[in-house]
Design brief:
The complex is a heterodimer of chains A (433) and B (247). Chain A is of the alpha+beta class. Chain A has eleven helices and 22 strands. In chain A, the strands form four sheets. In chain A, strands 5, 6, 14, 15, 16, 17, 18, 19 and 22 form a nine-stranded mixed beta sheet that branches. In chain A, strands 1, 2, 10, 11, 12, 13, 20 and 21 form an eight-stranded mixed beta sheet that branches. Chain B has one domain: Rossmann fold. Chain B is built from eight helices and eight strands, in the order H-H-E-H-E-H-E-H-E-H-E-H-H-E-E-E. An eight-stranded mixed beta sheet of chain B has the order 3-2-1-4-5-8-6-7. The longest helix of chain B has 22 residues. Chain A: Its cofactor is FAD.
Chain lengths: 433, 247
Amino acid sequence: MTGLNMSEPQAGHTGTGFSAATAVPRADVARADVAIVGGGLAGLSLALALRQGLGPDADIVLFDPYLSHATVDDGRCSAIAAGARRMLTTLGVWQHVGAKAQPIQTMVVTDSRTKDVARPTFLTFDGDVEPGEAFAHMVPNADLQYALIDAARSAGIDLRAQSVDDFTADRSGVSLSAAGAPQLSAQLLVACDGAKSRIRGMAGIANVAWGYGQSGITFAVEHERPHEGRAEEHFLPPGPFAILPLPGNRSSIVWTERTEDADRIVALPSIIFQEELEQRFGHRLGWVKPVTKPRAYPLGFAMARSFIGERLALVGDAAHLIHPIAGQGLNMGLRDVAALAEAVTDAARVGLDFAGPAVLERYQRWRRFDTLAMGVATDGLNRLFSNRSDALRAVRDLGLGLVDRMPRLKGLFIRDAAGLTGQVPKLLRGEAL
Amino acid sequence: MSEMNATVDPAEVARFDALGAQWWDEKGKMAPLHAMNPARLAFLRDALVRHFSRDARALRPLKGLSILDIGCGGGLLSEPLARMGGQVRGIDPAPGNVDIARTHAAASGLAVDYEAVTAEELASRGDRFDVVVALEVVEHVADVSLFVRTAGQLVADGGVLVLSTLNRTAKSFALAIVGAEYVLRWLPPGTHRWEKFITPEELEATLAAAGFTAREKVGLAYEPFSGDFHLIEDLSVNYFMVAERVG
């Protein structure tokens, strides 16, 4: 071969030094392949998925100022749907949290007035997506977070306890500035920085949001008798009241009330709070007592106008926030992770620009419809159930009763709640990238 | 120039030069090449990974291989090959194409060595490459036998020659000429001339005359609903051949 072109570094003769993909190095600018902002469950899972897809040579940097703090165990738990669990298994994370997880074996839905003694059951799910595979597990958030951080460290993800203050993007790359650190240039920037995403704001992507005037009160309880893996969702007039099984004789409560009522309830003296709780919790599991402090979180629906920008992808709550009625918020975020990692990997493995418009548009097409459908469904469920009309109750009882008598439709509900309908990304099917 | 340009058809060169800046517009006139790219790159990567015993899942599976992209156009193939780690030389007889390719690679931060030169000129300099690729080229050259012989000369010992082209069948006439050029308006009418298409049997005979034998043959099909391309056994429209030197 004759000499290489003058526009490239003098590295061709070293044999191993030549790397077309890392291009012409600019002095004092550090380079990475992917920069992720936000070290929550979505951001860390994405880092691991991209490590699997892009291989050991890829430079993956994750920024989150909270990485320098110890993880706070606030006792909160999340329902991890089967698809998301398969992905966490494929990424080598589930193995470290599975023992602390409680499978949801059955799900019971009732619809009644708060003070009804007997709560007629309208819908029961025996929740296996595949024989022996529960459609969801309850997992303590803190355990999942520890396991993800450990896995990210072992996978050589560059974890930086810094916040990204600014970024610019053009066709050839994105350039980030973090406090007290040199500029970092990357091929792709992914915002996993939550519902109030600063990256989304800096990119000028509008967010459409509305509140429900409802808040969710969450805490854990201990109860007398074992729950046997049974989840209950009671559609009470102010909103759903969910009892989700935790390991041992414990359950996680998600108690929806109008925001002003919720704020009042969490501030009640414990003896009165206890009375309100028992009225809703019922007596099936014997005595009940809170074991973590109840907190109220306002509920809302939000969706970014676009999930992508120039060399930018929004993932998880940064892209969408849905009503927790179906316990799908985190799972939607993990579905984003699986879809984005697959789109990026498919392009990278054939040498295409993995952060180019075609790849990002594929990600957006893949996720936007699903997100909107889930947003509308949960919004509709909430509107249908959160009211005091007896006529509407009759309608929805009829609807749920019909669903209960149609095993195939129920199966579809189960698989959909598990994230296993539609065009399912490989990781959610439990396949490696 | 005419001696050196024995395989280049000046009318074809002018046609492609006029396409110019549209090479990199994924939704423009070159949209079909962009749509075809993932499938043909995956095939090319897999064929090279098999030939050179590399890992297809690596970020840079072609690291260190010298690759010649004949008829590189705007660099749609050269750039991905460089990203996969190849040391890529892209040549095209149309100077406008090479300018565009060079500018685009620089903006992408990729080191690809582009030159407006013919394959014969390169062969006469004695340059040799681990991989010589000429995709969608043979249907545009003036003398197919001479072109294949020249491309073969550019292959280093132990190297590989990859060609792709359009078959001369009724189906290819319907799909590539009537469908792609006139119905879907993907390509400007006149981009292809069906009588210049070459059948797999003719191409294999031409390769044999140049001392090469086809190790792999595969077809490419368009999926109208998804808009994707995928590999098939049927060679009746668009097909690839991976050839090695005999003996």
